């Protein structure tokens, strides 16, 4: 990554006053930003550097800190795959200041106790805000609602609920969940996968699966659930979020639902914006993911949908696995890819360098919209005086090769390994503190005092 | 070409070379001493993660006729069934200096992973992987068809292809590695393939394959076929709503006595009936059809040994490296197969 951009000598002992000199907010006119005590206190040209650590941001773009609505941090339970510490380090390096940790830990995050544990681990780590996602059903079993209200009222202030990894396939249970979370302005994030249509599914069903002899995961299994759920959301007037949309047909359904005023939001992963099922021909399990990599026309539809707002947000679905889970037969391999440290670059490549989106749009889909869906105060805010200093400095001209050995995540399952990607995170400010400087981890934010109310509006 | 993983990546030149070499190997099988010293001192491992006595003994006979040392490694009763990974198993075989690994695996793609993972340096031969491919089966089928065609034409099969041969492949195409390997190989050899199956047992995407597709066996027979390949219906498909009942399957897609008789009334006296085995008599094929003079089932088994000898020999001798050049080169003579000094002194030439 670029190492020459930072002139300041910010270390753990540095002052909590930072002058970011000459950055381009959202890729627009250059200006200085003064950060102090966790906030942006001044914006303008030629700001005084008095008693401030100066960060030379010439040529860098300033963006609001990225918010991931969909991360797997694996802790508690699978600390061999990832911990809150390693996952949130990866998040900071990737330009994130907040991540939502999915509920499929062990034990499942289906009680106030577990979500508070994850929340506390995130706070102790201090690299990003770790916002737990609560399970919709007890043990992700799809039988009985978890205590959604208790999780919402806990110190973790859960607002997104999901059985991610497993679809809430029972229509009655889904209806009840959608209705119930209205009591505390929650949202159900659905993993849209009709279970019977995808038993044993290994990859997208189509011309490649036919040749490879791998059991197909048909697009209709995603689309039929989305069709059902947008109608349910309309019927009970609830908020619905669709995780990792992967097909052109899903895009059409969501576009239709939004046109009807249904309160649905949708997410796409960086890998679904770029990679296709053709990669599966290698039988390399690093390309095994759920939902599966789809066809070229799906990729094109997803990019267009993100650009026109049909898809609201980028969610990494960062899913680290230990190497043995991928060093095996395709059918036995775990599903999932890492994504936190490559998301920005992949979105720059697929959306910005393709001309589909500008940096303002980037900020919308990686920060403002996900923060709004998660009702996450203090994130996704404009870069303006008085706002919390959660921001990223990006060098859009940088080119770097993905090297698994240098990643902060424990997962070595990046499908982008070896690729040269554009754009690099030079600095990440989390609550006014640089967690990343010079493209490298700096120090975590160690803040004192109670911090249990971040989720309140 | 170091490995045989799929017929899709097999060139016409290499295909003809394998089939021609198999002809020469078949001649060895007719001699009193059915053994060649070609692979003396080389080790061939039969690595079977799935039961298949027929394929295993065929490869075993092939390797032994070439004087290779054969190790049979079966998932049953070994550490594989105790959760040892493919990687660990492969590395164990590598440590034992296997020259070739013949792998049968329930997972599609396992042979490809073995060949490309860097876990092992041996030549990898796919002996059937999941619902992907079974290339030596397709090669032995092609060998059988080529001999049949040569006999009809009164020509020598060596060097020839299957141009114009009309082949119907009937049955569970969706789950059949035999069908996949045959579609690619027969296309390479110039045959005209029609898949005949219930729509539920054809993969989504089959429309991209280089063959015709039909749901109607009778109309396919009436349009004229030179070879009918009947695929086995696996027991586990029978209760998964792929078709309503075995009787209905037999009536619509089985090669039953009525359809066997139809071949005669249609005047197709030279049409052969093939089956990769093992057969479900009375389900996809009637006993009369299986045992008729048209049936090549036993010839297929016999030819399997010759074809596998050819594959083992060519891969381990490196003779499939340059398909274009090899096409021009004179075919090997059985009497002059490599019999190196290293072999004679028992030193492993590897």
From TrEMBL, chain A:
Give me the residues that bind Zn(2+) 2, please.
Answer: 164, 191, 244
GO BP, one example? Answer: purine nucleobase catabolic process
User: Where do the catalytic residues lie?
Assistant: 317
**Any single Gene Ontology cellular-component annotation:** cytoplasm
Where are the residues of the annotated region Disordered?
A: 436-457
Q: Where is the Dihydroorotase catalytic domain?
A: 61-248
**Keyword annotations from UniProtKB, A to Z:** Hydrolase, Metal-binding, Pyrimidine biosynthesis, Zinc
Which Enzyme Commission number(s) are listed?
3.5.2.3
Catalysis performed (reactions): (S)-dihydroorotate + H2O = N-carbamoyl-L-aspartate + H(+)
- Tell me the cofactors it needs: Zn(2+)
Stored Pfam families? DHOase
> Looking at the keywords, is Zinc present?
yes
Q: Does the keyword Protein biosynthesis apply?
A: no
Annotated residues that bind Zn(2+) 1 are located at: 70, 72, 164, 317
Residues binding substrate, per UniProt: 72-74, 104, 290, 321
Chain segments annotated as coiled-coil in the UniProt record: none
Pathway noted in the entry: Pyrimidine metabolism; UMP biosynthesis via de novo pathway; (S)-dihydroorotate from bicarbonate: step 3/3
Q: Which GO terms label this protein's molecular function in UniProt?
A: allantoinase activity; dihydroorotase activity; zinc ion binding
Please give the function described in this protein's UniProt entry.
Catalyzes the reversible cyclization of carbamoyl aspartate to dihydroorotate.
Q: Which PANTHER family match?
A: ALLANTOINASE
HAMAP family in the record? PyrC_classI_B
Please give the family membership noted in the entry.
Belongs to the metallo-dependent hydrolases superfamily. DHOase family. Class I DHOase subfamily.
NCBIfam families tied to this protein: PRK09357.1-1, pyrC_multi
- What is this protein's record name? Dihydroorotase
Lineage start: Bacteria, Bacillati, Actinomycetota, Actinomycetes, Micrococcales
Automatic annotation (TrEMBL), chain B:
Q: Which GO terms describe its molecular function?
A: amino acid binding; aspartate carbamoyltransferase activity
Quote the catalytic activity from the record.
carbamoyl phosphate + L-aspartate = N-carbamoyl-L-aspartate + phosphate + H(+)
What are the record keywords, sorted? Pyrimidine biosynthesis, Transferase
Q: Which GO terms describe its cellular component?
A: cytosol
> Where along this sequence does the record place binding of L-aspartate?
82, 177, 232
Read off the PROSITE patterns from this record: CARBAMOYLTRANSFERASE
* Every Aspartate/ornithine carbamoyltransferase carbamoyl-P binding domain range: 2-146
Q: What class of enzyme is it?
A: transferase
Q: Name one GO biological process term.
A: amino acid metabolic process
Map out region (Disordered) in residue numbers: 331-350
EC identifiers of the protein: 2.1.3.2
Which residues take part in binding carbamoyl phosphate? 54-55, 104, 134, 137, 277-278
Q: In which pathway does it act?
A: Pyrimidine metabolism; UMP biosynthesis via de novo pathway; (S)-dihydroorotate from bicarbonate: step 2/3
Q: Report quaternary structure and partners.
A: Heterododecamer (2C3:3R2) of six catalytic PyrB chains organized as two trimers (C3), and six regulatory PyrI chains organized as three dimers (R2).
Q: What does this protein do?
A: Catalyzes the condensation of carbamoyl phosphate and aspartate to form carbamoyl aspartate and inorganic phosphate, the committed step in the de novo pyrimidine nucleotide biosynthesis pathway.
What is this protein's name? Aspartate carbamoyltransferase
What gene does the UniProt entry assign to this protein? pyrB
